[in-house]
Design brief:
By secondary structure, the protein is α/β, with parallel strands linked by helices. The protein contains nine helices and seven strands; from the N terminus they run αααβαβαβαβαβαββα.
Amino acid sequence: MTPEGELLLMDAGAELQLDLKPYLPAFAQLQSALIEGNRQLNLTALTTERDIILKHFVDSLSCDIGGWLSGAGHVLDLGTGAGFPTLPLAIVNPGIQFLAVDATRKKIEYVSRTAASLGLSNVEVLASRAELLGRDLAHREQYQRVVARAVAALPVLAELALPLLQIGGLLIAQKGQLSAEELAAGQQAAAELGAELFHVKHFELPISRDQRSVVVMRKLSATPSRYPRREGIPSKQPLFWGNEQIKRSEDKEA
């Protein structure tokens, strides 16, 4: 990482009320790993230092605006891709254990190697689909937090993530621009799945001023056993999208 990159990261961190100076060596190593990994695996379209810092590192760190990870012991990152937000969050939160989940095995293998090279003992990885994890008793209702960065529309994300949360746990979803229709559908889906959508914050990312929203759902009761539906159905037939609930007769397992 160049001196200009270090300054950019520290300035952006300051806007998030984070002192990132102690973590500069780790972020420099993460940047190098991402550039090298991208040559081999085509992990990201963002390749310049500025884009990596602002649109991967800082964007990931902004998932914790509001301090919603505070007090969490186990956090699941759903759809981690090349390790975002897990790796930046794990760097600055060494006391939190992260499980990075993605359906693409080559990406998960990259995240595992990178976490090991950074000495991040608080990162574990798993290659799996969320629909399968949500029905696996080893993972269903086991996590205190689920984070998701630009993964899916809110009603889809609610169905994939909420079954994984303990009662009282939080889904922290980072979104771009958020329509009133998507927000309403997410709120209805949360209620159907045993949760409430209780916090939305719209903000601009530091330096770049890109528009973002953080949506927080809180698990209030056990998710009905019929959710999540089988693989692919949540994204093809989102709950309550367009203010119409998907007929439960269509959701039965084959």
